[in-house]
Amino acid sequence: MYQESIYQFLSQKINDRKIPFNEEECISFLMRVSSNFDVIHQLYLSLYHNHPKRGDCFEALTEILIEGFQKRSQALRQLDIQKKGVTPWFTRSDLVGMSLYVDRFCMNLSDLRQKLEYLLDLGVNFVHLMPLMQSPQEASDGGYAVSDFRKVESRFGTIEQLEALIGEMHSKGMYLMLDIVLNHTSDQHEWARRASAGEQQFVEYFYMYDDREIPNDFEKTMPDIFPDSSPGSFTFDAQSGKWVMSVFNSYQWDLNFTNPEVFVRMMEHILFYANLGVDVLRIDAPAFIWKKIGTTCQNLPEAHTILQLIKHCVQSVAPGLALLGEAIVAPAEILKYFGTGSFVGRECDLAYNATQMALQWDALATGDVRVMMAAQKELLKKPFGTTWITYTRCHDDIGLGYDDTMIQEAGFQPARHREFLKEYYSGKFPGSPARGALFGVNPKTNDARISGTLASLCGLEFALEKNRPEEVDLSINKIILMQAQSLFIGGIPVLFYGDECGYLNAYSYQKDPAKNYDNRWMHRPEINWEKNQIRKKKGSIEHRIFTQTQKLIRIRKANSIFSDTSNLAWLPCHNIHVAGFKRYDASESIICLFNFSANKTGLTWFVLKDAGWPEQTKIRDVWSGLETEVGKDDQHLVLNPYQFIIFVKI
Ligand code: GLC
Ligand code: GLC
Q: How far apart are CA 154 and CA 152, in angstroms?
């Protein structure tokens, strides 16, 4: 179909619906859709050309796009226009995020409205609300087992309250991120229940088999995601007598995206979220959405095709909505979620910088930044116009998923190196102040990830337990160092709630049968607002962590140079303990240096020449406020244990 005919075809469809519309907006929608339509059609056919329902489902998809546009409110259409710019809105340095569970942070959605001032006071203006939609409490995976995509879990509130919250956030200049859990539904979702009852239409929504033959074939090459609590990738469903694919927990049934009807129905949910006013849609576990026997069933090319298809549909209907692909996979694989080939920059707008996150923990444990440095060549390939979510940790475990070659390049032996990190963060390594736990231990592969709050992993729990004030100071310095690097490196920094007040691990989850099989709950705190009030008491731990976090955020927001325009250059520090980079624009630059070791260490002042500051005689560290004379090339600039510096020219 050529452009003009697509335009005519769609405008006829809009007219047939007899819904009043604003002509100018309608034209701009038609322009967007008709210019994306060919691509949408091609991508769709590349997945579904052999499927008997391909025609009907494509027709349905077209209707959904039109309906999505017609249901988009005037206010959101205005926001779409405002968000347009030369550089994408989500790359700006004035964005700082926090991820939180509504019920554990406060109580419910209406209470959260009262807490927006707290977030704004900290400097947070981008909020990721952990899954809110209906999910069986006893088998919920923290809300990632959704039983109704459109109904807010009643203990949080209602969809109307969610909309009101979003409206209020927008009026305060805040942004919202929500999840779409695309890969699976709860076994209590209507589709799963009808499949279990034998309705063929819904059996085809999942991967269901009468015997173990195909499941066995799949499992030969599929790694276990939760090897200790939910081994294997299939679950026997007694009602249907079938084996159902359940890659994550046994109660999370994988949707079958080889069926175009599944794609279309999930696309409808995506546009529903778009029209609630969501600014960033976090696509949960996209690496898993396509399965093929004989593969790991992760990162398959068709998974990328689905994401590209989603991107082009969203771009047509709700151009202000950005997409985040939650792909916590190997570094080179993560980068592919920004699109490859002719789709570079046309897939996900954001991805988690999970590699950098884990490498910060690597450097903190070893006091050595060489593995972090070895990874940067890969990470710098991120396309212009896309950005990262940067973070020190989130609701999930910390996986050590970077490449063996990166560890080798730094001069370490990969298996032994990872072993050390696991022992260090679980507190088993002699002298380690970290208090974490291993998650997802797989005796077959010797793999394990790490659970724990930022503060506990940085040694605060240990220091308080032993009542050692100097270790408390050290742990706070580590916390702030970790946050600083994630705030200045580029991308939207997303803090995890509780970390701004130094929450320690909580072990009460062990008594809850709905949670005790999953130690990620140790680092998902229940906020005690009396404790958070202590942040106002000068000298308290809460005050020290909160105010320093607040100050980091202020510095980031005050310097547009921290916006992500692919303006990051790593510096040769010639010191294995210090990571340094320059952020720059056409006229200015800022130098950031981070000492990850427990010792004082020195860099020669030549580092400034390497950074392209040849003539500088005086500089200022905006973190400490101190001004310094620049020393001679062979003299040393000294950094204290876990100190970082943010140098500007004066
Ligand atoms: C994502 C979520 C994680 C969840 C999984 C399954 O990785 O972040 O918490 O367990 O998906 O939905
Ligand atoms: C995610 C990641 C894995 C993570 C898990 C949830 O999708 O692949 O690293 O640990 O699911 O915990």
A: 6
**Ligand 1 atom having least distance to the Cα of 395:** 9
3-state helix, strand, coil split of the chain in percent (to 5) is 45, 15, 40
**DSSP run (H or E) holding 590:** strand 589-595
d(CA 277, CA 129): 13
Instruction: For 410-433, give one letter per residue: b (16+ CB within 10 A) or e.
Output: bebebeebbebbbbbbbbebeebb
Question: 285 CA distance to ligand 1 centroid (A)?
Answer: 6
Reference 306, options 251, 266, 246; nearest CA is 266
**3-class state of residue 619 by DSSP:** strand
For 122-172, the pLDDT digits (tens) are: 999 999 999 999 999 999 999 999 999 999 999 999 999 999 999 999 999
Atom of ligand 1 nearest to the CA of 520: 9
Q: In the predicted model, is pLDDT for residue 268 greater than 60?
A: yes
Report pLDDT for 1: 45
What is the pLDDT at residue 490?
98
Instruction: State the catalytic residues.
Output: 284, 326
CB of 396 sitting under 6 A from ligand 1: yes
CATH of domain 568-649: 2.60.40.1180
Whether the CB of 142 sits within 6 Å of ligand 1: yes
Q: Residue-wise over 10-39: b if at least 16 C-beta within 10 A, else e?
A: bbeebeeeeeeeeeebbebbbebbbebbeb
Three-state SS across 16-60?
A: HHCCCCCHHHHHHHHHHHHHHHHHHHHHHHHHHCCCCCHHHHHHH
Question: How far, in Å, from the CA of 144 to the mean position of ligand 1?
Answer: 6
Whether the pTM exceeds 0.85: the reply is yes
Residue 20 pLDDT class (50, 70, 90 cuts): confident
Tokens read off for 32: 């967007």
E-strand ranges in 69-209 read 97-100, 126-129, 133-134, 148-152, 175-180, 184-186, 208-209
φ/ψ region of 141 (left if φ > 0, alpha if ψ in -120 to 50, else beta) reads left
For residues 29 and 20, give the distance between their C-alpha atoms in angstroms, rounded to a whole number. Answer: 14
Of 130, 115, 113, which Cα lies nearest the Cα of 167?
Answer: 113
8 Å CB contact between 519 and 509: yes
Q: Give the tens place of pLDDT for each residue, 404-463.
A: 999 999 999 999 999 999 999 999 999 999 999 999 999 988 899 999 999 999 999 999
Is the Cα torsion angle 232, 233, 237, 242 positive or negative in sign? negative
From the CA of 144, the nearest ligand is 1
State residue 365 phi and psi, 5-degree precision: -75, -40
Phi-psi region of 123 (alpha: psi -120 to 50; beta: other; left: phi over 0): left
Amino acid at 238: A
Give me the residue spans of the domains in the chain.
190-254, 568-649
- Which fold is adopted by the domain 190-254? Oligo-1,6-glucosidase; domain 2 (3.90.400)
Q: Which residues on adjacent β-strands are paired with residue 620?
A: 627, 648
pLDDT, one tens digit per residue, over 356-392 is 999 999 999 999 999 999 999 999 999 999 999 999 9
Distance between Cα 632 and ligand 1 center (Å):
51
